[in-house]
Amino acid sequence: MSKKNYGKQDTQHHLHPFSDNAALKNEGVRVMTHAKGIYVYDDEGNKITDGMAGLWCVNIGYGRKELANVAKKQMETLPFYNTFFKTTHPAVIELTSKLMEITPEGFNHVFYTGSGSESVDTMMRMVRHYWSSIGKPEKKVIIGRWNGYHGSTIGGTSLGGMKSMHEQGGLPIANVVHIEQPWYYGLAQNDESVEAFGIRAANWLEDKIKEIGADKIAAFVGEPIQGAGGVIIPPKTYWPRIQELCRQYDILLVADEVICGYGRTGHWFGHEAFGFQPDIFTTAKGLSSGYLPIGAVLVNDKVTDGLLAGGEFNHGFTYSGHPVSAAVAKANLDILDEEGVVKKVHDKTGPYMKQRWKETFSGFKYVDDVRSEGLMCGFTLVKDKNTRELFPNPGEMGLMCRDIFFKNNLIMRACGDHIVAAPPLIITKKEIDKMLATAAECLREFEIKVDALLAKNAVVEAE
Ligand code: PXG
């Protein structure tokens, strides 16, 4: 088959993640061939603006030769060795010391994994092992949130609050429960202030604790900002109250930083942006800017002390601390640090994006709740802004809008009817302007399409 048909060839034997593979067999997929900065190129010569940094991960942007060189050198020196049986290697030692430099005080230990899902599963096993290590084995329940996303393994899917995922395979597993998400736009009561809603939403955790009993609960887990759920930014009052409750009821507090970590919010870690101190936080993605798979679970001193008292932790992955991934991750963190990328998001591009994102989208008829923090941005497609009425088939309008972006060589994500963007952290102000100008054109096209659809429905109703 010629290269021209690559996109169809692919789908004849390749089952894609989170995709309708029967439909893909007919449609084919787009073939990405190379990338540079914030742009990806396909095999038809299109230059596509990657408003999603791959999958929320290519924080330093594409095409950094330093990382390729480090990978080559490490492969030639020591392509693999494990860290299981009283062994280690320089690449992982150096990555660890870099992590110790950038993580907040009180975090002096790290457990390596190969992905975000593995980090989450590691954390789920770790919190239970912690409690049994300190003599409280009955503390097993882990509390997540509806519409949270924590990966695709059985543990991660269970902890996440995506009902469409739970439905496939009878999840969640035992001892994983959920509370409602802190989504002001959708869940606030009449005239409730953002601050008051933040406290009320956090108190749903207290309700759940009282229902189950604190003596049975191991941990509460949340993304500082929900990413795949649609960039749901909690009120500033939310996390401090959650922390207060976790301390009061002796429950471990876990931040899932797989998206928020490594600069996305303009801080090294998302919990720093929201002023709380978790006991454990899970990371992956931006740790290597997606150049190679690697994840890391950061553990504070209190939890480490408990774990150390508990003897062997029967857990680990072949690729825990993989040397090539570790070397690349270290080089990536050096770039984020030495080139001031995180600080730039905090001081310049984050605030600029916030202002421009609002200006660009607020005026559109079917767009509301325009929001952003650092370089995590979102808005919601709604049928009626005055009444906050959502569209009837959640996700349908989102997909239609996303497809218009894609056709116009702009990648942004639809999470249901939330439209989100998370570009590489090296994006410049000029590139932000250009990306938003394209997005605005797409939104105009979307608006015309929706107008037509609604008018058609109105005619049908009138008949
Ligand atoms: N936790 C969080 C907060 C995540 O966002 C994971 C865990 C799992 O990571 P891995 O590396 O196992 O995928 C994630 C992953 C999307 C999308 O389309 C988001 C993720 C993954 C794939 C797609 O928004 N997040």
Concise summary:
Helix content is 44%, strand content 17%.
Q: Can you tell me about this structure?
A:
This protein has 463 residues and is of the alpha/beta class. The chain folds into two domains: 31-63 and 340-462, Aspartate Aminotransferase, domain 1; 66-338, Aspartate Aminotransferase, domain 2, CATH 3.40.640. Helices cover 44% and strands 17% of the residues. The chain contains 17 helices and 16 strands. The chain has helices at 6-13, 21-27, 53-56, 65-77, 90-102, 116-133, 154-159, 163-166, 184-187, 194-212, 238-248, 270-273, 301-309, 323-338, 341-361, 396-407, 429-462, and strands at residues 32-36, 39-42, 47-50, 107-113, 141-145, 176-179, 217-222, 252-256, 280-283, 295-300, 367-373, 376-384, 389-390, 410-411, 413-415, 418-421. Strands 4-10-9-8-7-5-6 form a seven-stranded mixed beta sheet, sandwiched between helices. Strands 11, 12, 13, 15 and 16 form a five-stranded antiparallel beta sheet that branches. Strands 1-2-3-14 form a four-stranded mixed beta sheet. A hairpin with a 2-residue loop joins β1 and β2 (39-42). α4 (65-77) runs antiparallel to α14 (323-338), α5 (90-102) runs parallel beside α14 (323-338) and α16 (396-407) crosses α17 (429-462). It starts with 5 loop residues before the first helix and ends with a helix. The mean pLDDT is 96. Bound molecules: 3-[O-phosphonopyridoxyl]--amino-benzoic acid (PXG).
